[in-house]
């Protein structure tokens, strides 16, 4: 579906320093948009330097603003005059001490905070919420309970909690709250983008997204004896950025949208790296037996037994046809995204000790 980026008003991207946001900002700048990037510290060059460089080399313009998900009203200055808001900011990490404070509060309070400012900012007519497939399912085993054995946009994650898969829980409660706020008014329209695991190269040199931890473990020897065959979906970060732009500017976009290019698992993903990187890096070449992962997972990789039972050797299935059809999306091949991501990590020294 063709769409035109509206360059007549600025566009706000929350969490502009992030991995996913980097490509959204880049594509907006390339199309001539004026981007208001909301970040925690606009003076932190390590976090925002790549965005400034992008802007210098693009027809669009960039203005950075300081904002924090936990500070009410802090996105208001960045939102002033904007017609479109991309709300991507939300912590994506799995190793946290306090799931409520580290994940749920920023995700949920942050969503309330941003959308309250949208309510107060008359110029905004469109919000694109970066939700996740994590708001649709908790474990790969949940796919079996979905209509026809495949997740679709009608499904909500009911199996994650503060104690089990708290990141997924944070994305679920945040998206539910976003729809509650959006449905309580009629001035602005919201479209949710629900990506599976995001892979592919970053626009920054030192990305902190959890996406990179998985790749790190594949290349640094953590999985050299083999990988647990955890079923999951993946999507390239550039295809996901395109999906965000479609969601914002294509009038056909609506509701929730599963954005996922491939149904795969960790072993299959690692295998795509073998031809180019297999002789130099201790990549996993085989699947670990589920019984062994169940036995040793809690000690080795912090994999809980419930997680192992419900995800290892369990196929992940999702129906991505809604977004493919209505947004006209196409997806890069898995091996391209994997090799470009891993190659970039090699280049910046991610596996050097
Ligand atoms: P990321 O690089 O870690 O980006 C997260 C962004 O959120 C960063 O800009 C971060 O700012 C910001 N943030 C975190 N806590 C904040 C706070 N208290 N106040 C203000 N900003 C805060 O991770 P990502 O992978 O790009 O994730 C971006 C979005 O995509 C998230 O909503 C995530 O849930 C969603 N998503 C990601 C994946 C994936 O596989 N990567 C899959 C599905 C959905 P700092 O740079 O200052 O830390």
From TrEMBL:
Segments forming a coiled coil: none
Gene3D superfamilies linked: NAD(P)-binding Rossmann-like Domain
Pfam families linked to this entry: Epimerase
Transmembrane segments annotated in the record for this chain: none
Residue span(s) of domain NAD-dependent epimerase/dehydratase: 11-253
Taxonomic source organism: Pontivivens insulae
Key words, A-Z: Oxidoreductase
Protein name (Swiss-Prot/TrEMBL): NAD-dependent epimerase/dehydratase domain-containing protein
SUPFAM superfamilies: NAD(P)-binding Rossmann-fold domains
Domain of life where this protein originates: Bacteria
InterPro entries: Epimerase_deHydtase (IPR001509), NAD(P)-bd_dom_sf (IPR036291), NAD(P)_dehydrat-like (IPR050425)
Presence of the UniProt keyword Oxidoreductase in the record: yes
GO terms assigned for molecular function: oxidoreductase activity, acting on the CH-OH group of donors, NAD or NADP as acceptor
């Amino acid at each position: 579906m063709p769409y035109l980026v509206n360059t007549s008003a600025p566009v706000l991207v929350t969490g502009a320093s992030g991995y996913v946001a980097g490509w959204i900002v880049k594509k907006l700048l390339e199309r001539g948009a004026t981007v208001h990037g909301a970040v925690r510290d606009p003076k932190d060059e390590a976090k925002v330097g790549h965005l400034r460089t992008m802007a210098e080399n693009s027809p669009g313009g960039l203005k950075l603003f300081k904002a924090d998900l936990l500070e009410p009203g802090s996105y208001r200055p960045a939102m002033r005059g904007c017609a479109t808001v991309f709300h991507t900011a939300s912590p994506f990490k799995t190793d946290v001490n306090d799931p409520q404070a580290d994940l749920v509060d920023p995700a949920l309070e942050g969503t309330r905070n941003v959308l309250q400012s949208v309510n107060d900012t008359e110029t905004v007519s469109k919000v694109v919420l970066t939700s996740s497939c994590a708001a649709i399912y908790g474990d790969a085993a949940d796919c079996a309970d979905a209509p026809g054995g495949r997740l679709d946009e009608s499904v909500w994650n009911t199996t994650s909690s503060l104690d089990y898969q708290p990141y997924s829980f944070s994305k679920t409660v945040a998206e539910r709250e976003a729809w509650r706020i959006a449905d309580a008014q009629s001035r602005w329209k919201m479209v949710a983008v629900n990506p599976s695991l995001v892979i592919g190269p970053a626009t920054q040199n030192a990305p902190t997204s959890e996406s990179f931890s998985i790749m790190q473990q594949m290349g640094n020897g953590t999985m050299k004896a083999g990988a647990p065959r955890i079923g999951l979906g993946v999507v390239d970060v550039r295809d996901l950025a395109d999906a965000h732009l479609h969601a914002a500017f294509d009038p056909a976009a609506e509701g929730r949208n599963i954005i996922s290019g491939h149904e795969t698992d960790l072993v299959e993903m690692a295998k795509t790296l073998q031809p180019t990187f297999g002789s130099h890096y201790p990549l996993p070449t085989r699947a670990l037996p589920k019984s062994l992962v169940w036995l040793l997972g809690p000690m080795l990789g912090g994999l809980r037994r419930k997680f192992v039972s419900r995800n290892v050797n369990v196929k992940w299935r999702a129906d991505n046809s809604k977004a493919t059809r209505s947004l006209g999306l196409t997806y890069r091949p898995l091996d391209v995204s994997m090799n470009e991501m891993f190659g970039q990590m090699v280049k910046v020294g991610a596996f050097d000790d």
